[in-house]
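Q: What residues go here?
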């Protein structure tokens, strides 16, 4: 694994830095335990005099905001909290208005910053508020879920859901700094940890087969915490940073990061963003299993690789079939309607991330909607 490591020479294994290389908007992702206590000093060193709106959800704020606030105060950073309800429903027009107005009311200036303390919901919402308030304020990510530490805090995709579908309103707005305190994951529920892990496996399935092999061998250690967990987070950030640096605005290869998402987003919409039924990472897990099975039915992906992917996801407690979502099943029509609103649709034609096997994902354009509908009917009938 050495050639894949994001560990700077001589640094202790538990303290990692990954660079996102984007010319004058480059930034660091700092990853280690206890970072929340150093957050104030890290921010003050990079953004002297900055004032902050700290956006968090009710759950995360109750657990971790006081400690962050102490660290900010110790560094002399003025800040106001903006607390929103937890859950996907907060990534909405109402949620956006609440954050934007709180930032304006607090008289924060363009040179000040919005700090997201939370999972991907808080990060996407706070980042979008930072992108549009005063035509673009500073933005800092302090991700607290596994999903946010390995994926959503990196790369600058921000936004909210619209009634028509996931993330349909948003902007690219890169953070100036990402502070991932791995110890904060100790308070995350096992279900949310597993959901975040789906986005970790995704990097292996896209184009890092040796990372998939490592995860297959070290899965239990990653779930247990400690060095293996930090290693998985750093390697995931490194994988994402490389893709984002190559294609920030998703003109090409960045679409690979959408493996499992065209199906997954349609399933989240079908579940009405009810996180009791389905959370994003679970939708991605089902979506990745579907993408592998569809690729196999098209003669692209070996059946043995499909079986390995399904077995790995199931062993992590993740769903792999549409029928694993509790409650009523969706109709093919409802799923196809949601899929037709996917942001990768070009000139009315579907784009899917398909695969020739583990670590061999590719972007398939002009995918036949009839083939997808037939495949979904077979899946729902099974
Ligand atoms: N911008 C991107 O590139 C990107 C990438 C992946 C996902 N996303 C988006 O991210 C969202 C999913 O993110 P998520 O899975 O983090 O969901 P989330 O933000 O809803 O967090 C999951 C749950 O865990 C709780 N939580 C978070 N951190 C905690 C902690 N340390 N201790 C205890 N509870 C904690 C939250 O309150 C919430 O109830 C989706 O909206 C998805 O579309 C965005
Ligand atoms: O960063 C990206 O690019 C991704 O696609 C990462 C995904 O995990 C994430 O869920 C993202 O929000 C999906 O983006 P979208 O453009 O399909 O809404
Ligand atoms: Zn995702």
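A:
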């Amino acid at each position: 694994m050495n050639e894949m490591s994001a560990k700077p020479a001589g640094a202790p294994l538990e303290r990692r830095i990954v660079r996102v290389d984007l010319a004058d908007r480059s930034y660091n992702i700092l990853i280690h335990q206890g970072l929340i206590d150093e957050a104030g000093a890290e921010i003050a060193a990079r953004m002297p005099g900055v004032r902050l709106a700290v956006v968090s959800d009710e759950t995360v704020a109750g657990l971790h905001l006081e400690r962050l606030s102490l660290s900010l105060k110790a560094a002399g950073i003025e800040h106001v909290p903006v607390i929103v309800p937890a859950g996907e429903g907060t990534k909405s027009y109402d949620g956006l208005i609440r954050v934007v107005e709180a930032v304006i009311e607090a008289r924060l200036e363009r040179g000040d910053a919005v700090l997201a303390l939370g999972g991907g919901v808080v990060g996407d919402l706070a980042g979008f508020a930072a992108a549009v308030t005063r035509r673009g304020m500073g933005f800092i990510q302090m991700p607290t879920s596994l999903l946010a530490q390995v994926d959503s805090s990196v790369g600058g995709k921000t936004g909210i859901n619209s009634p028509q579908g996931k993330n349909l309103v948003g902007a690219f707005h890169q953070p100036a700094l990402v502070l991932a305190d791995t110890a904060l994951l100790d308070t995350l529920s096992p279900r949310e940890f597993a959901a975040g892990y789906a986005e970790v496996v995704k990097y292996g399935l896209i184009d890092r087969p040796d990372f998939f092999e490592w995860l297959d061998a070290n899965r239990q250690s990653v779930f247990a915490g400690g060095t293996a967990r930090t290693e998985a987070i750093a390697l995931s950030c490194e994988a994402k940073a490389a893709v984002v640096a190559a294609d920030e605005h998703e003109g090409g290869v960045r679409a690979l990061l959408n493996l499992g998402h065209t199906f997954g987003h349609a399933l989240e919409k079908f579940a009405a963003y009810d996180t009791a039924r389905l959370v994003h990472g679970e939708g991605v897990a089902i979506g990745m299993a579907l993408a592998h099975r569809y690729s196999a039915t098209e003669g692209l992906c070996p059946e043995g690789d499909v079986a390995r992917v399904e077995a790995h996801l199931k062993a992590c407690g993740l769903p792999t079939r549409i029928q694993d979502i509790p409650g009523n099943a969706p109709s093919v029509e409802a799923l196809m309607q949601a899929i037709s609103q996917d942001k990768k649709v070009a000139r009315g034609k579907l784009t899917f991330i398909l695969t020739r096997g583990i670590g061999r994902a590719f972007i398939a354009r002009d995918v036949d909607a009839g083939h997808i509908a037939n495949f979904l009917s077979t899946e729902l009938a099974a």
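A: Context that may help when evaluating the design: The longest strand covers residues 165-172. The chain has two domains: 2-187, 195-381.
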